[in-house]
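Example with several molecule types.
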Amino acid sequence: KAGVTQTPRYLIKTRGQQVTLSCSPISGHRSVSWYQQTPGQGLQFLFEYFSETQRNKGNFPGRFSGRQFSNSRSEMNVSTLELGDSALYLCASSRQGSTNEKLFFGSGTQLSVL
Amino acid sequence: AQSVTQLDSQVPVFEEAPVELRCNYSSSVSVYLFWYVQYPNQGLQLLLKYLSGSTLVKGINGFEAEFNKSQTSFHLRKPSVHISDTAEYFCAVSDWAGGFKTIFGAGTRLFVKA
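Resulting C-alpha cells for the full complex:
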C-alpha cells in the first residue's frame, strides 16, 4: 500500500509569489491534515479536511488556504509569500479523522522563500 | 483546548544508557496521547499511543510510555538507546474542538553519542 505522497519535495519561491502544494493520502483515508514545521516551533496545525469539507482550521492568516478533492487528494495554497513562510509543510492522513486514530505522514515539502 | 509541553528541547545521551523524554498535557475529560518520531529528512511516524486501559504502553523499537493522569504526564522511556535512535520525538494529543486535530509539542531532539 502506497504511503502519503507529497509533491514537490522542495520549492524555492520569492516574496510575493504564491505556491500550491499537493498531498495524496493513503488509499481509503478520507481525512487529510496539514502542518507547518519550523525549527523550535514544532508542528503548527494549519487545517483538516474530511470528505471535501474543511472541519478545522488553525491560527494562520487567510493567505493560507486549502481544499480537498473527491478522491481525497488535497492541496494547500499560500498566496503573497513572506520570508516567514519558509518551513517544512507536512501532510498527514487518517481513515476517519477520529481522535483515536494515528496519523500517517508524508515526507513533506520544504519551502524556501527568498 | 488541549495543549502539550515537552520539557526538554534537547537530550544528549550515551549509547546503551537509559533515556526519558518528558511530556505534560493539559487536562481534559478524555485524552488520547501519542508519541511520534521524526528521522532526518523524513515525515513523522508513530511510536506508540495511549487510548485507554493499561497506563504502561509499549511501542516500536523498544520504547514505552507511562500515562499518569494525576500528574498529566506521558513520559517516553527506553532502557538502552542506540545510535540509530537519534531523531526528534514529538508528544501529541488529539483534540475535537469543532473539528478533529492533533496538537503536537515543540519536540525533543534526542542525540545518542558513541
